[in-house]
Amino acid sequence: MPILTPDALDPVALLAEVAALGLGGTALFVGSVRRSAEDGPVAAIEYTAYDAMVDAEAGRILAESALRWPETRVALRHRVGRVEAGQASVVAVAASPHRAEAFAACRYVIEEVKKRLPVWKKEIYENGSAEWRANDGSRAAAATPAPRAP
């Protein structure tokens, strides 16, 4: 199943994707577009990605997770396109025989996604202005052109 989607994310569908008898601990992470004093009046985020590279790198992240937690099943989805404030932009879910492994695998996957996936975001503010934001949360340099997916 592709990692990237322009469609609204459905955490329940991802929970079903990893569910299995014997997997009693499930961890779910939902990252949503936020508006805060720090971030300003964000109306939406426009996500763009290098699709083929996302699929390859996400595959590596999921494979690493499977090596570290072999009894754990993990699912991941990330939005592309415009995502309104309050909507989910990324969902990771892990199911394992025990909660500790589920939490660890879920956290590992989402942290690696934020570090390694070639996904870029442009914050769109209520007044119509926009600003590119790095995955670490910092604002991209104004002189830096926006990345473009091939």
Description:
The chain is an alpha+beta fold. The chain has one domain (4-133): Molybdopterin biosynthesis MoaE subunit (Aldehyde Oxidoreductase, domain 3, Alpha-Beta Complex). Helix content is 29%, strand content 33%. The chain contains 3 helices and 8 strands. The protein has helices at residues 11-18, 51-68, 99-116; strands spanning 4-5, 25-32, 42-49, 73-79, 81-84, 88-96, 119-125, 130-133. The strands form 2 sheets. A 4-stranded mixed β-sheet has the order 1-4-6-2, sandwiched between helices. The protein has a 4-stranded antiparallel β-sheet with strand order 5-3-7-8. β7 (119-125) and β8 form a beta hairpin. It is elongated. Residues 141-150 have low confidence and may be disordered.
SSE layout and pairings?
Elements: E1 4-5, H1 11-18, E2 25-32, E3 42-49, H2 51-68, E4 73-79, E5 81-84, E6 88-96, H3 99-116, E7 119-125, E8 130-133
Parallel strand pairs: 1-4
Antiparallel strand pairs: 2-6, 3-5, 3-7, 4-6, 7-8
Helix pairs in contact: 2-3
